[in-house]
Design goal:
single chain; alpha/beta; Type Iii Antifreeze Protein Isoform Hplc 12; 10 strands; elongated; Aldolase_TIM
Length: 360
């Protein structure tokens, strides 16, 4: 059977820096049926300089007057806020997750909050020091791969593998990172703990930019579990990703797409999240186990839809069956039509009325 897809409702920064709205997002994600609600943990001054420009979509949604750094400062949650949100998740029966953007935020998530899985955003796939810090917690990692080439993904996996297996105090050299990917134990560890998310880093992403088949490329190249971080409009492309083998779906969620802020317009609202999850669960059920056998529900319909050998005009005992007196009609509870040619030329053992099914 198809593995149950893990659904991450990406609250991200859609709380707009308001802890009360963050708590409302937790409740909405839980009601929608998500497995995880994910936030973002960062300190703006550690993430960007004053010279960092906003992305074009951020300028479109928040204007160009403030810098990226100023925007990020307004979207921070404190460590205490995060702990309250995590407690609310436990009460609501949904798993708390957050993407750390710096080592201190990651340590807080693991040591204080007790997260069981770490998520890496696409922007940090090349942030080798952060990847190494995360891997040394020995926890599962979900790694988004937006903007990346296969070579860059492989480099990131080398850093993560070194963190999983290497000396906790050692800094890897390029030779170390190349060597670790030749180690079967490293790949065993990566396959046990790392999921790669295909992603298009644009908000929203147009369908022609999404390239869902790249998800299979990642799976074939590295042998790891794969999923999809979806920035498209609507819910249908996420559902298609599940049909193509995604084990994780991440989708931005907002309480109101018209709220101010960088990500609201590219997010879905709670009722859409619920509809997406319902569609995904239907697709999982429909995928089945791949064996081509009748479903139990089909078996009674065989007699209704299939046909049997019948006399198409009256036949006397001793008369031979021919193409003129033998045919196939419903119901299908008699001799199967595959026997038609073997009956031609045989002698009828009794009289048959028109439309009467033949007996063996």
């Amino acid at each position: 059977m198809h593995r149950r897809t893990l659904i991450i409702a990406e609250a991200g920064v859609n709380h707009n820096g308001d802890p009360a709205r963050a708590l409302a997002l937790v409740e909405a994600a839980a009601r929608a049926g998500a497995d995880i609600v994910k936030f973002q943990s960062f300190r703006a001054d550690k993430l960007a300089t004053g010279a960092a420009a906003k992305a074009s979509y951020q300028q479109a949604t928040t204007g160009s007057e403030q810098s990226q750094l100023e925007m990020l400062r307004a979207l921070e949650l404190s460590g205490d806020d995060e702990e309250r949100i995590a407690a609310a998740c436990r009460s609501a029966g949904i798993t708390y997750m957050s993407t750390p953007f710096d080592a201190d935020s990651a340590t807080h998530l693991v040591r204080r909050i007790g997260v069981g899985t770490l998520k890496v955003g696409s922007g940090d796939l090349t942030n080798a020091p952060l990847l190494l810090h995360l891997a040394r917690f020995k926890l599962p990692i979900i790694l988004s791969t937006g903007m990346a080439t296969l070579a860059e993904v492989e480099q990131a996996l080398g850093v993560i593998a070194f963190g999983y297996l290497g000396d906790a105090a050692a800094n890897p050299t390029p030779a170390d990172l190349a060597k670790v990917l030749l180690d079967r134990a490293a790949w065993d560890e990566l396959r046990a703990k790392v999921t790669l998310l295909h992603c298009t880093t644009e908000y929203p992403a147009d369908p022609q930019s999404i390239n869902l088949r790249a998800m299979a490329t990642l799976r074939d190249a590295f042998g790891l579990a794969v999923g999809f971080s979806d920035h498209s409009r609507g819910i249908h492309i996420a559902a298609a990703a599940v049909a193509l083998g995604a084990t994780v779906i991440e989708k931005h969620m907002t309480l109101d797409r018209n709220l101010p802020g960088p990500d609201h317009r590219a997010s879905i609202e709670p009722d859409e999240m619920a509809a997406m999850i319902a569609s995904i669960r239907d697709i999982e059920a429909a995928l089945g186990d791949g064996r081509k056998v009748p479903a139990p529900e089909e078996v009674p319909n065989r007699a209704v839809a299939r046909r049997s050998l019948v006399a198409i005009r009256p036949i006397k005992s001793g008369e031979r069956f021919t193409a003129d007196n033998l045919g196939v009609k419903r119901p299908g509870n008699g001799i199967a039509p595959i026997e038609y040619w073997s009956y031609l030329g045989r002698t009828a053992q009794r009289d048959y009325a028109a439309n009467e099914a033949l007996e063996p």
